[in-house]
């Protein structure tokens, strides 16, 4: 900490001779530096979520279910004593984030995995921006959707990222699932999207 503040002091001194006690204090108050745009934050959050989702799918579900055949993955994981599905893993994480962030006034974002053709109706889009975004990413392969929406008098930056059928098992399970409203998914299709919402101040 000592080292950090003296470095800051030197940097400010070089920049413009502004190294007063007040500006040094402000400069080391890193929590209040508005240097990350909502888009950059959303992109970074998505990268982490998507990488975790991929790792869980490949290194846990695929390896233990397909390669080593030691356990199954099931929607009814408790009854079946099975692994949770990747989409459930994602939703449980997002629900825990929502609960934990209630106690952190500065950490105020939400995310979910949604689809225009959801197996779980809870994962259907709710706001106009979510509907438009999910349609946009399905129609424009490889592109993300970014917008600003107003909900309950507050403004939010909302990003929608495509979730792709990367493995045959994505397609087969959704196409034959009893609650699935769509049965013609193909490998490589956009099956849904991750929605990340960040409040905008002012
Ligand atoms: C064994 C069946 C199964 C497999 C395999 C599977 N899913 Fe799902 N998927 C589900 C179920 C069940 C849900 C609902 C989970 C919940 O309760 O939120 C779901 C949810 C989703 C959702 C959210 C919208 C919805 O349908 O509720 C997306 C998007 C999705 N899956 C994409 C994929 C992709 C992409 C893959 C492959 C990487 C995949 N799924 C593999 C069964 C499966």
Mind explaining what this structure looks like?
- There is one protein chain.
- By secondary structure, this protein is α+β, with helices and mostly antiparallel strands.
- The chain has one domain (36-199).
- 47% of the residues lie in helices and 16% in strands.
- It has seven helices and four strands.
- A four-stranded antiparallel beta sheet has the order 1-4-3-2, sandwiched between helices.
- The structure holds heme C.
Query: How would you write the strand order of the largest sheet?
Result: 1-4-3-2
Number of helices, where a helix is a run of at least 4 consecutive DSSP H or I residues: 7
> What is the 3D shape?
globular
Whole-number average pLDDT? 87
What secondary-structure arrangement, pairings included, does this model have?
Layout (H helix, E strand, L loop, with lengths): L1 H15 L4 H8 L9 H30 L9 H4 L5 H16 L8 E5 L13 H12 L5 E7 L2 E11 L3 H9 L13 E10 L3
Antiparallel strand pairs: 1-4, 2-3, 3-4
Bound molecules: heme C.
Summarize the structure.
This protein has 7 helices and 4 strands.
What are its keywords?
202 residues; alpha+beta; four-stranded antiparallel sheet; 7 helices; 47% helix; 16% strand; globular; binds heme C
């Amino acid at each position: 900490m000592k080292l950090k503040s003296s470095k800051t002091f030197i940097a400010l001194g070089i920049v413009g001779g502004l190294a007063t006690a007040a500006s040094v204090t402000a400069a080391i108050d890193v929590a209040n530096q508005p240097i990350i745009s909502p888009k950059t934050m959303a992109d970074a959050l998505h990268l982490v979520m998507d990488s975790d989702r991929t790792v869980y799918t490949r290194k846990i579900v695929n390896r233990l279910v397909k390669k080593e055949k030691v356990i199954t993955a099931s929607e009814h994981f408790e009854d079946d004593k099975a692994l949770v599905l990747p989409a459930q893993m994602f939703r449980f994480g997002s629900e825990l984030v929502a609960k934990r962030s209630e106690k952190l006034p500065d950490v105020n974002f939400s995310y979910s995995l949604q689809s225009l053709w959801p197996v779980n109706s809870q994962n259907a889009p709710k706001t106009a921006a979510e509907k438009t975004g999910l349609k946009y990413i399905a129609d424009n392969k490889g592109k993300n959707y970014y917008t600003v929406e107003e909900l309950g008098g507050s403004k939010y930056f909302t990003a929608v990222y495509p979730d792709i059928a990367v493995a045959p098992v994505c397609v087969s399970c959704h196409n034959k699932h009893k609650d699935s409203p769509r049965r013609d998914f193909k490998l490589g299709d956009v099956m849904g999207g991750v929605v990340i919402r960040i409040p905008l101040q002012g």
